[in-house]
Automatic annotation (TrEMBL):
Belongs to the MoeA family. Pathway: Cofactor biosynthesis; molybdopterin biosynthesis. It comes from Teichococcus globiformis. It catalyses: adenylyl-molybdopterin + molybdate = Mo-molybdopterin + AMP + H(+). Coiled coil: none annotated. Its EC number is 2.10.1.1. This is Molybdopterin molybdenumtransferase. Residues 174-311 form the MoaB/Mog domain.
Length: 401
């Protein structure tokens, strides 16, 4: 059994980001940039007015002065002349400041009188003018490669005149559930049958982590059926299996995939739940074999698949974040497996997170998992803790899982 951290490192080290594709701006949200975005223009392209009012020479625009209005400069229609001594040009927000002017007299501080305007508030030089390049200059690096694009980033890329962005392709994750006893939700149940939940839960996790799930038909507990289904792996950036990971004679993943060229990197980790995790490569495709127990499959999904998807989509390799929290109930000493306890989370009035482990931690209990928003991490051989002691927890809602 290898430690959790080593398992994660071995998984993440083996993965490479997907290639790049061009997508239109609206499709780029939440995708990861493959190529940096540089400004294709200067913004604003010239000095522009930040307000509606009059473009003036500040030296002339003292309180009580009267200026002759010689023209108008709406946004998008620059005034071609100059503002001469004793003159003003009507201007609107976003319009280019005419030559000669060095300040804006606010409309609220001006009284139009026929062809002129009375200055009611003196104008300082530079007032209400946005200088050319205030935001960015042509050639500036605006967004680096590897950035996960926010709505703000997309606005910036659009302003910099990019209709398309080069982003990493969304990783395709094949999901293969195995087992004679499992049937798809909604299907008639044979005696002793159970409904397959793992593939669907994992597909949702893949989506939350920015991948595209490809849910394959369930494979029977038969080496040929598993081998045939797993051949779909060649279309995927990563292949997931659930079930058949353990030591029983019906646990066939390794038996079935060995003859297909499966190269095992490791099997079994010092973790609860999730001990029989499998990691290796089937041909070119990395393969993560998750345990069949639904909670084990999902906890492994959070700890290994979630960061794996980050790497595949061009983000840095990192473990899911752990937050400090205090315990709602005491915990006994841990054994040699790193433990992830399903727990509810509350935020105390002082802002501190409090986590309370579910009273039963059986790795089949999906209702408990759905009702819990956190996984308390306990290091191998961690000592017993009293209620109120500090611990650390992974907050599932933070990951969108
Ligand atoms: N003698 C031992 N037995 C077991 C060990 C062990 O070390 N020695 N490990 C246990 C641990 S820990 C786990 S976890 C499970 C994992 O077993 P498998 O990966 O081989 O999973 P299965 O046996 O196929 O199924 C286990 C359990 O999960 C249910 N299942 C399977 N697939 C699905 C699915 N798609 N959706 C929902 N539920 C699923 C299945 O019906 C079983 O109840 O092994 C222990 N045994
Ligand atoms: O470690 Mo298993 O993963 O107990 O359910």
């Amino acid at each position: 059994m290898i430690p959790v951290e080593e398992a994660r490192t071995r998984i993440l080290d083996a993965l490479r980001p997907t290639g790049a594709e061009s997508v239109a701006l609206p499709e780029a949200w939440n995708r990861v940039l493959a190529t940096p975005v540089h400004a294709r223009l200067t913004q604003p392209p010239a000095d522009v007015s930040a307000m509606d009012g009059y473009a003036v020479r500040a030296a002339d625009a003292s309180q009580g002065a009267r200026l002759r209005v010689t023209g108008s400069a709406p946004a998008g229609h620059p005034f071609s002349g100059r503002v001469g001594p004793g003159e003003a040009v009507r201007i609107f927000t976003g319009a280019v400041v005419p030559a000669g002017a060095d300040g804006i007299l606010l409309q609220e501080d001006a009284m139009p009188e026929g062809g002129s305007v009375l200055v009611e508030e003196a104008v300082a030089s530079g007032r209400w003018i946005r200088r050319a390049g205030l935001d960015f200059t042509a050639g500036d690096l605006l967004l680096p490669a590897g950035r996960q694009l926010t709505a703000r980033d997309i606005g910036l890329a659009a302003a910099a005149n990019h209709p398309w962005l080069s982003v990493h392709r969304q990783p395709r994750i094949g999901i293969l559930a195995t087992g004679d006893e499992i049937v798809l939700p909604g299907e008639p149940l044979p005696p002793g049958g159970i409904v397959s939940s793992n593939a669907h839960a994992l597909a949702a996790l893949v989506r939350a982590a920015g991948g595209v799930p490809l849910v394959l038909p369930i494979a029977r507990d038969d080496v040929n059926a598993i081998a045939a289904a797993a051949s779909e792996a060649r279309f995927c950036d990563l292949m997931l299996t659930t079930g058949g990971a353990s030591v029983g004679e019906h646990d066939l993943i390794q038996q079935a995939l060995g003859p297909q060229g499966f190269a095992l990197d490791f099997w079994k980790i010092a973790m609860r739940p999730g001990k029989p995790l499998i990691w290796g490569r089937l041909g070119q495709t990395p393969l993560l074999g998750l345990p069949g127990n639904p909670v084990s499959a999902l906890v492994c999904g959070v700890l290994f698949l979630w960061p794996a998807l980050a790497v595949l989509r061009g983000r840095p390799a990192a473990a899911p974040p752990l937050r400090p929290a205090i315990l709602g109930t005491p915990l006994p000493q841990n054994d040699r497996r790193e433990d992830y306890l399903r727990a509810t989370v509350t935020r105390r009035e002082d802002g501190v997170l409090q986590v309370t482990p579910a009273s039963r931690q059986d790795s089949s209990m999906l209702r408990t998992l759905a009702g819990c928003d956190a996984l308390i991490r306990r290091a191998p051989d961690a000592p017993g803790l009293d209620a109120g002691a500090w611990t650390e927890a992974l907050i599932l809602s933070e990951l969108g899982i």
